[in-house]
Amino acid sequence: MVDSGKQVYTTLNNGIKMPLLGLGVYDMYNNEAEQAVDWALKMGYRLIDTASMYENEIEIGNAIRQSSVKREDIFLTTKVNNSEQGYDQTLRAFENSLKKLDCEYIDLYLIHWPLKESRKNTWKALEYLYETKQVRAIGVANYLLPFLEELSTYANVVPAVNQIELSPYLFQKSFLEFCKTQGIQLQAYTPLVRGQRFNDTRLLELSKKYYKTPAQIILRWAIQHGISAIPKSVNPIRLQENFQIFDFEISANDMEWMDTFDENLRVVEDPMELL
Predict the structure, then answer these.
(1) Mean pLDDT across the chain
(2) PANTHER family, per this entry (predicted)?
């Protein structure tokens, strides 16, 4: 990891740099989405994560183009929708996303969910997009161990990123270590568990100790594990709060303690049901 002022970057397995902390824009629409990205970029966020499924790529693209931040300094992710999976369908979906975002390129393109009947052909389409330099990196989302093992039997390119639901309350340490050995960057969506554990007395104890909010403690835990996190907020105060995690460090003992908070708590569907 490289600390660059208010941001920490990781180097993906193909050599490109990606910020570890970003903004997720799920369930944001119209002006709300555009405004959130505008605020985030002004605050120092440089990773913006969207998806065709979110139906806000036009607004995200507007915010990026209107920003004073150079496009090459922004890491933009989008994903192929479930209804658009398959080889030819994925190539069309990519073109549609590129058109809606109105960008010359996408930094990271992901398979959104590992649909059994189409995930192989979808991955092959992503490899084509990567090999023809239409996207800087490719990866997957919601790929737990069985999906990654299956992918390895036919993939010519190792995914740069695997975006999964992950938090101290849904922490699979062995899976994190596996992804590290494979050169796959883990990225956590809903890292704050939608606030469901902010009243955890253990988390509040750490919050008091470090003079940080529960959200900041959780996000710092992720960053110190080398996990990318993309919390979502449309509130400028929360956006700023989530970004102010680079001025403190959780001790090794407290990190180990937080690792024990795991209770297999999910707030999104379990990908294993797609096997």
Answers:
(1) 96
(2) 2,5-DIKETO-D-GLUCONIC ACID REDUCTASE, NADP-DEPENDENT OXIDOREDUCTASE DOMAIN-CONTAINING PROTEIN
